[in-house]
Amino acid sequence: MMRGPKGEIDAVVCNGENLQRLGYDMCVAREWTQKTVLDEFGKLAAFGLDYVQFFDQNIGGGTLLCYSREHGHPEIPGAWQTRAMSSLQKEMLDSAGGSPVIGAEASAATPYVKNLVFNDARACFTFGRGLPVPGYAYVFHEFICNFMGNQCGIHFYIDSKKNPWNLFYRTAYAFHCGDMLSILLGPEGKIFWNWGLKWNAAAPPPQEPELRLLRSLNQLRKQYPQFLFEGKMIPEFIRWEADTVSLVLTNRTETIPRILASAWEDSSGNRIEFLTNFLPDPCEIILDGTKRRLEGLETLALGKVPEIVGETRSVEQRAACLR
Ligand SMILES: [Zn+2]
Q: Could you tell me the distance, in angstroms and rounded to a whole number, from the CA of residue 23 to the centre of ligand 1?
């Protein structure tokens, strides 16, 4: 078990009578921890799963801090933890022959990008203090694939009664980060706002527009995998202007652009930019000096893009390039 500076034992990660679990935080350098992780992961692998978010709560795939003088590692936190965690992740992948792939809560930290190839990159907790920006996608998207995650905790920050469209915005935001989309199912199998919100606490969001948006954005992901799955995020190159809209949060109101946009480059240097009207109502934008109408939930794909030839690589193949 991990020890604090005075040798104390604590469990700080979502731990407690009224939280997700009762347990202890384990030291990654200990043999017992490594063996337990490998054993438990082996059981999951035997099910034939494609993916396991094994390092949930190990944000980015990292470890918490251990100060033990009895574990055989240096008595203060340091690079030893990163080495131990990286080595454990590699052992997991090797033990299962690379399938299932594994991931973490939040985007994988740099040392773990090569091992954690599919991560729960929900941007929810940024709304408490500001607005999310696609910084991770900008640096890492060409190497890694993330997904929208379970949107845990969004009800702490966004008032769904005042913003019934906030799920459309969050879905379009994930798309514009190049992330795979995800949905949460609630009562009667209906799409729900986020994980962690009691089903009787709010009526489900409008279903039809969200389904229409998911269908449209997924179609674009299939049509342009060289950008949205494998591509590099680049600065926007289309000049556009649009109105703004108010995003009412529980502690303040933010003004955000009426549309979302992001630009991409593929390995051949082709560029594309997507602009999404994330609301069900049509809107008008100025595109390179000319007025243009965007239908509700419509996404424009702008740029000269040739047809793709051949297959794209899998997330495992892309990660293997980094090892
Ligand atoms: Zn330790």
A: 16
